[in-house]
Amino acid sequence: DMPIHNFMGGRWAEKAERISGQTMFKKYGKHERSCLSCPSNCTLVVDIPGTAVGHAPEYETIGAFGSMCENDSLEIIGQCNELCNDYGLDTISAGNTIAFAMEAFEKGLLTEADLGGIRLSWGNGEAMLALLHKIGRREGIGDILADGTRPAAERLGKDFGDMVVEVKGVEIPMHDPRAYWSNAVNYAVANRGACHMEGVTFTVESGLPFPDLGYTAPMDPYITDGKAQLAVKMHDLMVIYDGLGICKFYIVVSYGPTILAEWLNYCTGWKVTPEGLMRTAERIFNVKRLVNVARGLSRKDDTLPKRLLSVPQRDDIGPVDPQGMERMLTEYYRIRGWDEKGTPTRERLKALRLA
To answer: What's the mean pLDDT in 116-143?
Structure first.
């Protein structure tokens, strides 16, 4: 589900092997390590040329500075990762923004002069590094790009709008919703915008079991049936993870509300049930939604960018069906007890003891 060429699709399998986790471990891996007091060795320490020895680039970073920009150099990806750490930039948004600028350069909407002498062709790693420095320092075109793709497109003009791939101002992560339609409704409705960690629905769709939520087998990724219900359940489950301060990588061992309630009760002496925990999560999710509604967000904002609803991911995977997207959204609202505009109804808020 790794996106390519600013979500314009195509095949990139051979080059993808050059930047895979296995290749990185073989070429530059030192050893695995854990975060403090964590039993999971899910972090790889690497020694990539041009960077300090340390934490390996994550999957999202590899996708953002790799396939999205058609760059097959692990060395460039490692340096981009380090620059983002130094400048305090999010790698997903930074990689998306560079891919956006690359497409604009390819189409002649941005010139070398506009970019301060940078020839921003696809796969040009040195150009990527140069542009990252400009973004980090807000120099020249970097001052426009530093706020992300939506504000940049608004400042640069209407011709740039169709190249923006975001929801509510947050750039789409490296899990393409055209590959897993549950991600389409997850991204569209997630309170903070397009964030895979708000729902991680694609993990369940691909077969990760959560028996206490009713999921024990993979789901067909290209149909709408059941996807809204999955998004609701996983949105609420991730609220529990956030509220307890638990790393979401624990989803890989299918930690659902049952074991989380057991942990909480063991630590606090409470007597919380899994159902009660999910009910609390539902209340929190609705409060967040009310904050967004108060700021003017509604159904018009709960959607995907045009590109993902019209352009195939590749030859054998089409776009998300627009009508299917609307059906999933309508079903999501119905399950939540929201009206047709996406506003929680007073009846639902009373049932949740929020009104």
So the answer is: 98
